[in-house]
From TrEMBL:
It comes from Catenibacillus scindens. This is Cd(2+)-exporting ATPase. Residues 1-48 form the P-type ATPase A domain. InterPro entries: ATPase_P-typ_cyto_dom_N (IPR023299), ATPase_P-typ_P_site (IPR018303), ATPase_P-typ_TM_dom_sf (IPR023298), ATPase_P-typ_transduc_dom_A_sf (IPR008250), ATPase_P-type_domA (IPR059000), Cation_Transport_ATPase_IB (IPR051014), HAD-like_sf (IPR036412), HAD_sf (IPR023214). SUPFAM superfamilies: Calcium ATPase, transduction domain A (SSF81653), Calcium ATPase, transmembrane domain M (SSF81665), HAD-like (SSF56784). It catalyses: Cd(2+)(in) + ATP + H2O = Cd(2+)(out) + ADP + phosphate + H(+).
């Protein structure tokens, strides 16, 4: 429900949200609210409310075309009254028909959506493409969006001179091999990926949510949280405390390893940042688009990852409804907001934003359905491409509308001067339509990388 990357330990009497996942073991829970008041139902209602707020955007071309037809009739009648020449009146009607104007928007959008599809970006509507072109603020979820949403070993620190990093990882992974905890599983997976052999452990015992005891090569080890190992007689000196504080400041989870009252070392784990995230943020800033991080993670974790990618504005420890309020606050400041996310907890914010993008591969079904655009490859480098494509599409539409209006105005003047006949007027009119279609077609192969 919060989208945090690290598992949260829960004990007797603590509240858990409907829709959260129990990582290991079994628990007894008591329902304190009926179904319609559960956190999951609240989330669904927020999505429905946001859908109702999304008013369809009236297209400029359609509005213009609605008044151009009566204006054309008035000018044609007026020209006949003053010139008494029916040919002039017919010519005015021929050249004033707003075909090019009406073609400007749909042809540009079709070309842009076609190009986006070639690049693995699915755009569900032309309205979404137009809105993306007007966005000045992009809000990111962290877990599964800026990061891969999986835990990996980031630091191996030994406090025992006789143990190298490899020895420390081998010893800890061997002890954790029978553990069901996601941190333990991540340590074991790291050791296996590095080709480090594991030793069979004996006398394995797990204390749920705290740590484990295990005997490896006749060494009785404790692995777990700082509180767990200190409760079991392991002392943590100033060096250990300073190391743990540095790791916390970087938003990392720590597994301490102890033996015989001594702390042997610590293994830190964190979510894995997508390698293209930093460059993506820099490219958006170059386009004068501000970036914001909206996450359910703790403030220190959020601040660390924001610094890593270059995001200056961070809103952390947010529940789904708080993400919605953050988006609404930006909109109240007259910002056009795009939300990018992947999880169930992001769906209300995705619906509330002016336009939204879902991570297609890792994203949940509800997030993909809530969003108007989906990245099928989960490649964040497509976000600057999408922004440039949208900007280019909006610019092309405006240019095409301006061109069609200029051609119409010039043709009307020439018709009133009796320079154009119905035949030549038809040629000029169709030429204008062809120009608009050709300009739009150029979007299909234009480079936006």
């Amino acid at each position: 429900m919060t989208g945090e990357s690290l598992p949260i330990d829960k004990g007797p009497g603590e509240e858990v949200f409907c829709g959260t996942i129990n990582c290991f073991g079994s628990i007894d829970i008591t329902a304190t609210k009926v179904g319609e008041n559960s956190s999951l139902q609240k989330l669904i209602r927020m999505i429905q409310d946001a859908e109702n707020k999304q008013a369809p955007m009236q297209r400029i071309a359609d509005r213009a075309a609605s008044w151009l037809v009566p204006v054309a009739l008035l000018i044609a009648v007026g020209s006949y009254v003053f010139t008494e020449n029916i040919i002039t009146a017919v010519t005015v009607l021929v050249v004033f028909c707003p075909c090019a104007l009406v073609l400007a928007t749909p042809t540009a959008i079709m070309a842009a959506i076609g190009q986006a599809t070639k690049h693995g970006v699915i755009i569900k509507s032309g309205e979404a493409l137009e809105k993306m072109g007007k966005v000045d603020t992009i809000a990111f979820d962290k877990t599964g969006t800026l990061t891969y949403g999986r835990l990996d070993v980031s630091d191996i620190i030994s406090f025992d001179e006789t143990l190298s990093e490899t020895d420390m990882l081998s010893l800890t992974a061997s002890a954790e091999a029978k553990s069901e905890h996601p941190l333990g599983k991540a340590i074991v997976a790291c050791a296996k990926s590095r080709g480090i052999p594991l030793t069979e452990s004996n006398s394995f015992k797990m204390t749920a949510g705290k740590g484990i005891f295990a005997t490896v090569n006749e060494r009785r080890l404790l692995c777990g949280s700082e509180k767990f190992i200190t409760e079991n007689g392991v002392l943590t000196d100033t060096n250990v405390q300073d190391t743990l504080e540095q790791l916390r400041a970087q938003g990392k989870a720590s597994v301490l390893v102890g033996e015989g009252g001594k702390c042997l070392g610590v293994i830190a784990l964190s979510d894995v940042l997508r390698p293209e995230a930093k460059d993506m943020v820099a490219r958006l800033l170059d386009m004068h688009t501000q970036t914001v991080l909206l996450t359910g993670d703790h403030q220190k974790t959020a601040d660390y990852f924001a610094r890593q990618v270059g995001i200056s504005r961070v809103c952390a420890e947010l529940l789904p409804e708080e993400k919605v309020r953050s988006i609404e606050n930006f909109q109240a400041e007259n910002h056009r907001v795009c939300m990018i996310g992947d999880g169930v907890n992001d769906a209300p914010a995705l619906k509330t934003a002016d336009v939204s993008v879902a991570m297609g591969t890792m994203g949940s079904d509800i997030a993909i359905n809530a969003a108007e655009i989906a990245l099928m490859s989960d490649d964040l480098s497509k976000i600057p491409y999408l922004k440039r494509l949208s900007n280019g599409t909006v610019a092309t539409i405006k240019a095409s509308i301006t061109l069609s209006m200029c051609i119409n105005f010039a043709a009307i003047v020439l018709s009133l001067m009796e320079v154009l006949t119905p035949t030549t007027g038809a040629l000029v009119h169709n030429a204008g339509s062809c120009f608009v279609v050709l300009i739009a077609a150029l979007l299909y192969d234009r480079k936006f990388e």
